[in-house]
Design a protein that fits this description.
mainly alpha; binds pantothenoic acid; binds sodium ion; Sodium:Solute_Symporter_SSF; sodium transport; cell membrane
């Protein structure tokens, strides 16, 4: 090892990394030349609505699990202990609610994009606002996703930064544009396997280097890295059970309930039941992913203790730690560093490809198609060109992220809360409040976005001049004391309890999604009542979830268990469309058929909906 701490790749590491790119490309080419050869938008965007549950669930998990989580979570656990693990509690409601409310509703409407829902429920303007907000969110997120692994690799091994960005950007764009959603889902499956294998290998070797399981356990326990449940209700404390387990539910809903990338996967499944099942199966997959990345943080602590490479100034930021650890511990295991780098890039490729495909889909379906009529061949070609263009935008965004500088995990989760939160609010307003009208929806969304940027940017600026930025240079502060639970920003918060606006600015980023979505719903309702609420009869059928009716029927079941076989099923109001599900071949037909179905559906409200 070189005195500056610089680590080097061996030839076998390069080969493994190259193999990942080649294999992903090969899967893309396979789907470009088999099946319908990606000649229809139905195949390109929705995989002919024929996907099965298992690949879908892995793909659903992979979409929002990028290199950010792989290197951000261990760095967080190394520094602050396992408190972050409690985010796993939010996965329960965060997946049950989408599975039982959002998926049945969207699936039965047979949408072409999730934003089409907004037009059915409100009007075209709301749909466009939703689409533009989504594009904004995913474009920034893509930048973080592609830049993170490249930066870590560059910092630790000296690998060319923009070389890595361009290589992954190019490969990913090509397989997404050529192979459509089928290629995206199947590369996700392959990349998830690589991701788990890489993490597991490093954990096993790391435990061995730390002197075995029991030694490693004693070290992390004595180092205070095993956090108890923190029930402090203060919403400004960055990570507590409440911010993670409850605030996290809103984050999960915005990602797994109403995000186009995910809804597109639900809609591409063969049957509604498989869509719901795939959402259920995300739960164990996400728990495994969370467990692996938390264990990685603990193993890192077991190996380094408080004597981190950051403190030794081998690296300059927390986000470089994981890769440094891998290169440091695994240098005698040729190929393993390459496997881990493949794991890191797998995680990011699977995220970026989903982003490209979903962005191309919404641009086509929501922004272009309604305004220009074109042939199917033209539309498919244009969708592929769009996927390519988003590839270029992605690399450009990476350059912007390069200019920012914060913990990548917090940055990514803040984006989800700041832009995804208001979108979640918009959908909830439509789904749960039949009285909400279009004006309320637009103004509510705007208010949510203003709130989000006010609090988000205010929080960022109010923390700026503090010691957070200088921490890495000051060796005594680099690693928080053995008590472990205290983070940089939390120390400041605790020292001077913020009041007034500063109180709002110091809100934990884990509450952003909840705050912003509630703002949209509240303002949306107030404006709707001021401008004349929508009457039940005017709400398009199947676009509202019958909260009261479901609650009544649940209550009925609880009180009179014998009555459950005679009482109607929960979703009676949309059962009218149920026969569609069995009939995939037909409804997977042309785009025109789908559109006609939807328009006729939108203009003829069904009577039983009005009682909601
Ligand atoms: C978003 C969750 C919480 C769940 O998917 C997790 O995967 C995560 O922490 N993601 C961080 C962002 C990223 O990895 O790109
Ligand atoms: Na991913």
């Amino acid at each position: 090892m070189d005195p500056t701490g610089q680590k080097y790749f061996t030839i076998i590491d390069y080969v493994i990394f190259a193999l990942l790119l080649v294999a992903s490309m090969a899967i893309g080419l396979y789907y470009a030349f088999t099946g319908g050869r990606q000649r229809t938008t139905q195949e390109f965007m929705y995989a002919d609505r024929s996907m099965k549950c298992l690949p879908l669930s892995l793909s659903l998990m992979a979409t929002f699990q990028s290199a950010v989580a792989i290197i951000g979570t261990p760095a967080e656990v190394y520094a602050n202990g396992t408190q972050y693990w409690f985010i796993g509690c939010s996965y329960i409601l965060g997946l049950l609610i989408p599975a039982h409310i959002f998926i049945p509703l969207f699936y039965r409407l047979h949408l072409t994009s999730v934003y089409q829902y907004l037009e059915l429920r409100f009007c075209k303007a709301v749909r466009i606002c939703g689409t533009v907000t989504f594009i904004f969110q995913m474009v920034i997120y893509m930048g973080v996703g592609i830049y993170t692994p490249a930066l870590a690799l560059n910092a630790v091994t000296g690998f060319h930064l923009w070389g890595a960005v361009l290589a992954t950007g190019l490969v990913c764009t090509l397989y997404t544009a050529l192979g459509g959603l089928k290629a995206v889902v199947w590369t996700d499956v392959f990349q998830t396997v690589v991701m788990f294998t890489g993490q597991l290998a490093v954990i096993i070797v790391g435990v061995h280097q730390a002197g075995g399981l029991s030694d490693a356990w004693v070290k992390v326990r004595d180092g205070g890295r095993i956090s108890g449940i923190d029930l402090n209700p203060d919403p400004t404390v960055r990570h507590t059970f409440w911010t993670l387990g409850v605030g996290g539910v809103f984050l999960m809903l915005s990602l797994y309930g109403v995000n186009q990338a995910q809804v597109q996967r639900y809609l591409s499944s063969r049957t509604e039941k498989e869509a719901v099942m795939s959402c259920y199966m995300v739960f164990p997959c996400l728990q495994v992913a969370l467990m692996l990345s938390c264990l990685m943080g603990l193993v890192m602590y077991a190996c380094y203790g408080n004597n981190s490479p950051l403190e030794q100034q081998y690296i300059t930021s927390k986000d470089q730690m994981v890769l440094y650890f891998v290169m440091d511990m695994l240098q005698n295991f040729p190929g393993l560093p390459g496997l881990f780098v493949a794991c890191l890039f797998s995680a990011s490729l699977s995220t970026i490809s989903s982003a490209f495909n979903s962005l191309a889909t919404v641009t086509m379906v929501d922004l272009i198609k309604p305004h220009y009529s074109m042939t199917e061949a033209r539309a498919t070609l244009l969708s592929k060109m769009l996927a390519l263009s988003y590839g270029i935008i992605c690399v450009a965004m990476a350059y912007l992220v390069h200019l920012m500088n914060s913990s990548v995990l917090q940055a990514a989760l803040s984006i989800f809360g700041m832009v995804g939160g208001p979108l979640l609010g918009l959908f909830c307003l439509g789904i749960f409040f039949p009285c909400a009208n279009s004006i309320g929806a637009v103004i509510g969304l705007a208010a949510g976005l203003v709130m989000s940027f006010w609090v988000g940017i205010g929080g960022f600026l109010s923390r700026m001049p503090s010691s957070v930025q200088v921490l890495p240079l000051n060796s005594t502060n680099t690693v928080p004391a053995a008590s472990g639970n205290i983070t940089g920003p939390a120390v400041i918060d605790a020292a001077s309890r913020p009041v007034g606006l500063n109180g709002l600015y110091s809100l934990s980023y884990m509450w952003y999604s909840a705050l912003n979505s509630s703002t949209v719903v509240l303002i949306g309702l107030v404006i709707s009542f001021m401008t004349g609420p929508t009457k039940g009869a005017d709400v398009a059928s199947g676009t509202v979830y019958p909260v009261m009716r479901t609650a009544q029927s649940l209550l009925h079941k609880l009180v009179k268990p014998s009555a459950c076989c005679t009482s109607p099923p929960e979703h009676t109001q949309i059962d009218g469309h149920k026969e569609m599900n069995g009939n995939i071949k037909e409804d997977a037909g042309t785009e025109e058929e789908t559109e006609t179905f939807l328009t006729s559906n939108a203009v003829s409200p069904v009577e039983h909906e009005t009682s909601v």
